[in-house]
Amino acid sequence: MGLVRKLASIAAVASVLLVTGGGPALAHEERPVTFPDGSGSVPVLRSGEPDLIVCKTDEADFARRIASFPADLKARNLDLFAKCQEKGVRHLQEAVDQVRRPGMTIALLPGLYREEPSRPAPTGDCARLPARWSTWGYQILTYEQQSRCPHNQNLVAILGKQDLQIEGTGAGPLDVVIDAEYSKLNAIRADRADGVYFRNLTAQRTTFNSLYVLETDGFVIDRVLTRWNDEYGFLTFASDHGLYTDCEAYGNGDGGLYPGSASNLNEGRGHDVPRYAIEIRRCKSHDNALGYSGTAGDSLWVHDNEFYDNMVGATMDSLWPSHPGLPQNHARFENNKIYDNNRDYYRHTRDGTCAKPPAERGYERGVVCSQVGVPPGTGVIVAGGNYNVFANNQVWGHRRAGFHLFGVPAFIRGESDLAKQADTSDFNRYEGNVFGVGPAGERRPNGLDVWWDGQGTGNCWQGDTGASSPVVLPVCGATAPELSGGTRRLLAEPVKLVKLYLCADFSASEARLPAGCDWFGATGLGKVETQLALGGSVVLALLAVLFWRRSRQVTGPRGRRLILAGTAAGVLGLTLDVVAAALSSATQAGLALLLMGAWWLCLGSALRAARPAFGWLTIVLGVLACADAFDRLVYLIPVVPLGPGWIRGLVTGLWVLCAVVALAPARARPAEEPAEEPAAGASA
Asked: What is the pTM of this model?
């Protein structure tokens, strides 16, 4: 690694540590896991009679639940109910415990399943398991401990069962409800359960996940609804050959869908992807903190879904340590509808609602307690991902941005190797997406179509994006990884970097909403970027006025005219810079730089004769400001590993010090004392 890259990596680490004071808390802690060997396959739905039947005994309640079913479905349920009364069981866990061979099917008849035998708190040895406690207040249990004490954390535990199919027999998912009533971390846990198939049921109200699939090669989630959980609706982790289809999730404090640490099949392959580990299709995820969340969400094909009315439609990231498969890579999002993700659930954190026990928060009435700090009003966030493709999606109605991309230093995920610190936010492609057009063809613009921190290599966007920050973006070529106007930047734009890591100081457990971050409600002069712009502008404006006042003493008529014109441009540019920061306007920020560059060029030209060194330094600063504006507004300058904003910022700091010296009044030379006259009568 070259010296510049090393220095940039060190600077990235130092800047992040300075702002955050350390790494983030863990979002999801799990035992050490191993990816499946990939020899499995996606299971296929089996038809025919079930091997085991689960139902309740209240015949009147059952009749009421199936009353509106189509005749054929009603008749089948009546037949199954009669068989179930004779030889069935009353709880899903009871049926799972009777599974003795691969390939069995469990039928769940319409009803509410509270799984009462699984609910009591652990006793005996299960209450004293020797396992580490997570920062979220639960123990990190091994697979063996889960097997020994399956209901410490799980309402229903499916451990080591192979090719098991669990199917609700109702007309829709809400006819079969498995309700943890906030008594367990997970409503259903399928652990090392290769070939498991879930169909046509609802799981709800947990202190973590409704449906959790772990270390499993081959699973299907088909027409399943999850809702009202502290964290995730669906969580699949360290798994392969998976399919989510026609599912729905809402009311979750993190991701409605969370395909985390999917099998890392395509690492190092560039854009050549022979297969994906998990497919997600025709699902709806809405009214969550995040519609979709994927830490180490690798090798995922996400298509023909709807993500709407969340705080953020979808995220994928490399933020959290101990997740296998980092940095995140190779998710393909296409033909999705991503719209109106403008919910702001932080109000429930501010007013104390989320400090109450989960059962008292009002999830069923629309309360969501966000566990993550994100910018509400955003379609898709990539936080340190590589080789992701976003193609032919419809993205509309976001008050902040359609797509949001920024890099994440490797030390955040626990890797200290300097060579890896700038290894994320590379080779992501955005092509063929439709921005700002609603379902009926009406205009529904995003605040910005694209927000990018400027860091990374090989990222590109389609040529018809609308408003963006920066104003100019690299444009994708016809085939990956081709692009035009590309760049290789090791650090994000300075102000964006400060903003990102200030905003990262969110804590759900401590109800901490970082002041100065517009993600959490800061506006105008309350925003950190506005405060930075205002502080810098006040200092530079003061220097501009002082140079103008001194101009008569140090320059001739031509120099005074240059300084006057430059001062007017500079003061206007400094004012515009503050306005641009307050309004988050990338175009105005670029124009402000041009005006400031004009001031420095005029000032340097006027002072060059009297103060050559300072005059040339001022001219160089003016050129850098104009180059920074060109980089933001016209064309990303290639080759340079740091954006012009970094170089301009460093030179500006040096220039301010030199300007103070140049403006300091010269020390007056002491007058010579007159020679003392000799006294009268003294000899010469």
From this structure: 0.92
